[in-house]
Specification:
With 164 residues, this protein is an all-alpha fold. It has helices spanning 2-14, 18-32, 43-47, 51-64, 71-80, 91-101, 114-119, 151-160.
């Protein structure tokens, strides 16, 4: 059953259907944590996400996007934005990350907090994410990582899973 999930993800990626692949990624991750579709991911869950699953998902994203998308790509951008891979929530780094990958509407204003971005309606709505290779590096997978803030936790988990 697990192998079928990955075959579906790979098929969507070979068809260049990045939006469907994003949804499939979310479903695979939810199933890996034995949660229900519609549930959110929380920091502690992402810090303990099964390495085998995380590496497989990331590997497919990186392979089929030719290095443009994937959790490891997001990890690198997060670090470039000042993120520390310590399994903590770092508001300033995440705000910079959101702007770098296009999860925030273009603006001259600099934000120090994703919550402030949300309050000011500056987050890019899911339907406006660029689901193509023309998008920003690291823009995908988007999924529903605790409103995108799970990036810091997954980045830390990737380090613990010995990637890149």
């Amino acid at each position: 059953l697990k192998e079928m999930r990955y075959q579906q993800l790979e098929t969507l990626m070979t068809q260049v259907d990045w939006k469907a692949a994003d949804g499939c990624t979310y479903r695979i991750m939810i199933q890996a944590l034995e949660k229900r579709v519609g549930d959110y991911f929380y920091g502690a869950e992402l810090l303990n996400f099964p390495c085998e699953e995380l590496l497989r998902i990331d590997g497919l994203w990186v392979k089929y996007s030719v290095g443009k998308f994937g959790f490891s790509v997001q990890k690198d951008i997060y670090v470039q934005c000042g993120g520390i891979l310590d399994g903590q929530y770092h508001a300033k780094a995440l705000a910079k990350f959101f702007q770098a990958v296009g999860w925030c509407k273009p603006t001259e204003k600099t934000y120090d907090n994703v919550l402030l971005m949300a309050q000011e309606n500056m987050l890019t709505p899911y339907e406006k994410i660029n689901f193509s290779l023309d998008g920003n590096d690291g823009e995908l997978p988007f999924g529903d990582l605790d409103d995108g803030c799970g990036v810091s936790f997954l980045a830390s988990r990737l380090v613990n899973c010995s990637t890149r």
